[in-house]
From TrEMBL:
Protein name in UniProt: CHAD domain-containing protein
Name of one Pfam family that matches: CYTH
PANTHER family assigned to the protein according to its UniProt record, in alphabetical order: CHAD DOMAIN-CONTAINING PROTEIN, SLR1444 PROTEIN
InterPro entries linked to this entry: CHAD_dom, CHAD_dom_sf, CYTH-like_dom_sf, CYTH_domain
Sequence ranges assigned to domain CYTH in this UniProt record: 5-200
């Protein structure tokens, strides 16, 4: 079974190749010698090294106290999540799943072998508690998958103990710098091995600054692609907000393809946009359930205890947990499906050979501003039509459509910010406020539908349904308040968030 550990560490280089004495620095009362470990690790990747290009490392290591398979996922500079699984001959299924969006149909093969002799020290506080583990590693690297050679170096690592304060590492670094130790130029041993063992290596791509309208649209799509791929393993691990962020990335890409049809040929991109809509819908099943459960739970908690009649909290909790279990299992099946992996392949192909139209070469300030203005005009028409309807089901549907178009306008404005600056940023903020209001309205619609369903089940079981009716009335009131605020908010959004140009 895989286990997860948050790894916070810093790597250093030293001409001396040994660990300086750190006693007395940063509250270190004692340095305990833990001996020498010999480590032997095979690093796996695809033939074109997709994992390394994304900052991921996958290894099978023997020796030391943590022999096994380790997948390291970047969180931020100096911070990674390490997913560990027991030793086996092949990549464990639970780890293979976490890199599937990157690997897809390619094979994982050994690309580098690293053998290290590690001198380990424990840095202890006055009570004997572990502050960090420091080590000096003599590393021998051998390239396995290309016409490369070997390399050898010594590096120092300081890894913070679980639950430690990252500021401790700052204090330790001051002592190390005084001793002539320098921060490493490489983020990981694998990155250094790939750089020093020869042979071509596909590192992170550095692209030229966007110039044309097409450059800006493609840069935005590439950014969202990376968000989607970064979120994939987080969704599989059921991390907070991961489904939402992945869903937003798919929506942003789809919105960009629709809004900037003058830049990218929609005859080519529309079939792919349809697949993005499918994926967003699959992701939404889990996300919408999560939002709805939080909304109803909060509303119930706000009621005085004497108004909660019957087992309402228990029924609501059981409903939320059962629905989450069903939707989560389905979502993982979606991420493992051929359709999803084909979508990722199509996205890569579209970005590598984009179907650019003539206006893709145009001045971005004109081409992108026009697209944003057209989107804003559609939002205006939909809101006016919705407000002309009487309160009720038809208005609810119309406001939901206006919300979707407002989101599209927001995303188009966000994509245009690098080219258009403050006017696009202002419009994006205005559309964000508008979609938040319309989102609250739509959530109230969905909450009332759910409360009717739960009330019917409770009634059939002979339970008191008073509380469900009370919650229903509260959600109805929230919808009415949103509708009352909408005209003024829309007027201010339209005036203060005017599209550029």
């Amino acid at each position: 079974m895989a286990a997860t550990k948050r790894e916070i560490e810093r790597k250093y280089e030293s001409d001396a190749g040994s660990l300086p004495d750190l006693t007395g620095a940063a509250g270190i009362a004692a340095v305990l010698d833990k001996g020498v470990a010999e480590l032997d690790a095979l690093y796996y990747d695809t033939a074109d090294e997709r994992l390394a290009a994304a900052g991921l490392t996958l290894r099978r290591r023997t020796g030391g106290t943590d022999a096994g398979w380790h997948l390291k996922l970047p969180v931020e500079p100096g911070v990674r999540d390490e997913i560990a699984a027991p030793l086996s001959d092949t990549v464990p299924d639970e780890i293979a799943a976490l890199v599937r969006a990157r690997v897809r149909s390619a094979r994982l093969v050994p690309v580098v072998r690293l053998r290290s002799v590690r001198e380990v020290r424990h840095l202890l506080d006055a009570d004997g508690g572990l502050l960090a583990e420091a080590s000096a590693d003599t590393v021998t690297a051998e390239r396995l998958n290309r016409a490369g050679g070997t390399a050898r170096w010594t590096e120092i690592e300081v890894e913070l103990a679980d639950g430690g304060d990252p500021a401790f590492l700052d204090a330790v670094e001051k002592r190390l710098r005084k001793a002539g130790v320098r921060p490493s130029k490489s983020p990981s041993k694998l990155a250094r091995a790939l750089a020093e063992t020869g042979g071509p290596h596909r590192g992170p791509t550095r692209r030229a600054k966007p110039v044309t309208a097409g450059d800006h649209v493609l840069a935005y799509l590439r950014e969202q692609r990376e968000v989607l791929l970064h979120c994939d393993p987080a969704v599989r691990r059921d991390l907070p907000d991961s489904v939402h962020r992945m869903r937003v990335a798919t929506r942003r890409m789809r919105s960009a393809l629709r809004s900037f049809g003058a830049v990218l040929d929609r005859a080519v991109t529309d079939p792919f946009a349809a697949e993005l809509k499918w994926l967003a819908g699959e992701l939404g099943a889990d996300r919408d359930q999560e939002v709805l459960a939080e909304r109803l739970t909060s509303a119930l908690a706000a009621l005085p205890p004497e108004l909660v009649l019957g087992p309402v909290p228990e029924r609501l909790s059981a409903w939320a947990e059962s629905r989450h279990g069903r939707t989560r299992g389905h979502l993982i099946a979606v991420l493992d499906s051929g359709r999803y992996l084909a979508l990722l392949d199509t996205l890569d192909a579209l970005l590598s050979d984009p179907p650019l139209r003539k206006k893709a070469a145009a001045d971005p300030e004109k081409a992108l501003a026009r697209a944003v203005r057209e989107d804003r005009a559609k939002v205006a028409r939909l809101i006016e039509e919705a407000l002309a309807l009487p309160p009720g089901h038809e208005r609810d549907l119309a406001l939901h459509e206006a919300r979707k178009k407002a989101k599209r306008t927001r995303y188009a404005a966000e994509a245009a910010v690098p080219a258009l600056g403050a006017p696009a940023r202002s419009l994006a903020r205005s559309m964000k406020s508008l979609t938040a209001l319309l989102g609250d309205h739509q959530d109230s619609v969905m909450a009332r539908r759910t409360l009717r369903e739960l009330s019917a089940v409770a009634h059939a079981a002979g339970e008191d349904t008073f509380t469900y009716g009370l919650l229903y009335g509260g959600q109805e009131q929230r919808a009415a308040q949103a509708e009352a605020r909408l005209p003024d908010l829309w007027k201010r959004a339209y005036e203060s968030g005017c599209a550029p140009g």
